[in-house]
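Reopening this ticket.

The earlier resolution said the output was attached, but the attachment link was broken on my side. Pasting everything inline this time so it's all in one place.
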Amino acid sequence: MCNFRLTLLFHLLLTLFLHVQSLSQYGSTVEFLPGFDGPLPFYLETGYIGVGKSEEVQLFYYFVKSESDPRKDPLLLWLTGGPGCSSFTGLAYEVGPLAFGQKAYNGSLPILVSSPYSWTKFASVLFLEQPVNTGFSYATTSEAYMCTDLQACDQVYEFLRKWFINHPEFISNPFYVSGDSYSGITVPVIVQLISDGNEAGKEPLINLKGYSLGNPKTFPEESNYQIPYCHGMGLISDELFESLKETCKGEYRNIDPTNTLCSQNLKIFKKLVSGINDQQILEPFCGTDSEVHKPRQLTAGERRSLEEDLIFLKHDDFICHESHVATRKLSNYWANDLRVQEALHVRKGTIRRPWARCRQSIGGTTYTITFMNSIPYHVNLSSKGYRSLIYSGDHDMVVPFQSTQTWIKYLNYSIIDDWRPWTIDGQVAGYTRSFSNHMTFATVKGAGHTAPEYKREESFHMFKRWIAQQPL
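Inline output:
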């Protein structure tokens, strides 16, 4: 009798364990977040989905339902670039419903507020932490932390298929993939994988409609456009620009070591722009918020001093207190707070080192880049008729708008809506042009490398019009 009861108890516990595991696959609802006053005014779900043969890679996600009609509104997958930048960047700095209510760290837990320009006003957004070792995503084996860019794209596609199985109510919603910066390399690959999977009949079939990219890395030669961009923006003289063109022949990346004149001109150029913030040339140059700055984990009673946080600033350079770099650093303090991780349902013991908004060390260590040209994917996706929005913050020196225009012209599709301004409340917000392959190009006036971070309102209206298939 005793053995029977033990056996019954074992089966009951096993059933309960499997039930809990099953529920965890569907994610967990988050109603309150430390730093945010009151309950969240939107639906937030976080969770993990395992990918790989033994699900050794556990990808973390934030999912926010549309605040309009989530049953019918588009569903958007957001992939932050890097590689190695957390999708929390999209959630709190670019297109999501959250924003930091302060610009610099003051010693206490950073404050979060609602963003009035969240893309979740009209679309559901799935913010995915990828590749593995980004944000709260992790692996269960050391080997699983190693992957190539193409393997990471495969993992995103596997994640999506499993996520839709767990969320069948969204399978019929129009689906788009979006991102910016380095995501310009991976997003077209992922869209291609989804398209190929649909054509092959892989279940569940995803209702793929298109993709959008901001200031996207696309091909290796785009760095050659930085010098023409700097000349057009008045950062270098006419004489230096003409000399660079003549001596370097338009190739500024792989320089012939015997071409001393080109090398000398490039040295002058680099010195002239060394004090420029290349992500937004009008912003102050205040260093970086990458993992060079490594906050330790904070307990509820611990606080880091303001002086320690501002060590990256020059003694007299207080303008950096108001910079985007200072605001980005807030995420490190917020996400490393143990109360935050508990609220987000982060699995204890899975983060091997302090959370960082961007793990720049991923490239070349655990993440291997095998290609840097996504133009062939754009060619193929254009032939299949998918919609696309390609936009450029026009004050970005990292991926200048000229380089983006160049590869779009290479696709050689006819113009159906020629270059014109697009406006908000009667004011010019940028310029746009549309092509016969269902591709729209737009500039966002005054925006930097991550356009929605610098111009949230303008980016909100741009994307809202585009996804509703209205002219910008």
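Reporter confirms the inline version is readable. Residues 236-272 form one domain. The CA atoms of residues 84 and 132 lie 8 Å apart.
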